[in-house]
Design a protein that fits this description.
Distance between the termini: 61 Å
Helix content: 55-70%
Oligomer: single chain
Radius of gyration: 22 Å
Largest sheet: 5 strands, mixed
Order of helices and strands: HHEHEHEHEEHHHHHHHHHHHHHHHHH
Strand content: 5-15%
Number of helices: 22
Shape: globular
Amino acid sequence: MGLAGCSSCANKTREASPPADASAEVRAAAAEAPVPFIHDDYPAALAEARKRGVPLFIDFWAPWCHTCRHMNANVFPDPGLSRQGEHYVFLSVDTEKPQNAEVVKQFPVQVWPTLLVIDPREETAVLKWLGSADLDQLNALLDDARLAMKGGEEGHSALLARADRLAAQGEPGAAAAVLAQLLEEVPRDWPRRSRAVESRLMVLALGGAANPEACARLALDELAQLPKTSSWARIASWGLGCALEVEGKQDFTTEVTAPLEARVKEALAPSAIEMAGDDRSGLYMVHFLARQQAGDSEGAQQVGKAWGAFLEQARADAPTPDARAVYDGHLTTLALELGKPELALEGLRQSEAALPGDYNPPARLALILGAMGQTDAALEANGRALQKVYGPRKVRVLNDRASLLREADRSEEARASAEEALALIRSLPEGQRSRRETARAEKLLSELPAR
């Protein structure tokens, strides 16, 4: 349902339009979107949801997040989402923007994207989903949340709804216990088992219930009998990612990590499973990391070569610059990890030319040029990024600049950039401060010559 089809949204043109820095393709897609999104205005979205008596769906995203960009380019614009228009108010929250600090503080984000469903009556979370979801999965999640809010679930579905609510409201340990009970009770062929497994893996991989060993073992056990769908591939990815966090246990590596890596390879086999390109690229990444952790440099190079070929083809097949830019982050990571930064050079230059309002291509280009020893060109690219970047990400770009300046023996300028990064961190609301970038700026300053 487009904007014109929503009588209660008729005066919401400002909020439902895409952000000012969106590309022409994003603006064109928004004009024909199956559901209208309010952008970066939580109070307005909450008021609209209360007025209409429907739940509020929030997409917490960031411009640097490749999976967020995949969702924005491929999932949210899909006409198959239109049936949800009458049942929800949709809100897009860029977690980097200062005006969103309060809602980010109210609903903390650990993973991008985070998809949240809010009951507007009490302003409480009903369901939280971390990472990607394809159209069918997103529709199922929205159906689940709507029924849960109405209290229409029974039996095993009621247990799943209870776990969803607990996880969404910041009680991962309680959610994990309910999900464990659910998975013990339901048959292996329960239609929603894959979804319940993914939910339990999320709480075991992150937050207060984090238990990477249990996460990996659960994934391996469930993969043996679940149907091979895109959910199966995501479970394999979650499982191997968890397994790589369990180090120093040879028996575990043999019994769990190696079989999970085999499942990831199985998911990556040609035509094995239909899945989004961003999910497939994520599988290549975790497979690559597994080879690196195993000390198999030759194997990592082989996986990297296959990953690079996939990224090249995916970028070539992408219908718009925004869809192509989904792969820029992984392309940059691969090029740097392989020690072949030149592999990403042309693609990032292409993205910068096609998306002049986007700070990500020049910021990534600065890293690539720096790795190639072209410090002056890297600083120029970093400067172009600084003209566009905002919020917490600006801290990272300033730290990148300080590192480049230090390598160029321009210590005073490097110190000024790191000090600017720290000052910016201190000026940000608490929910938008990065501990990692704070530590990085402090380390840079400690390593630079004193004035």
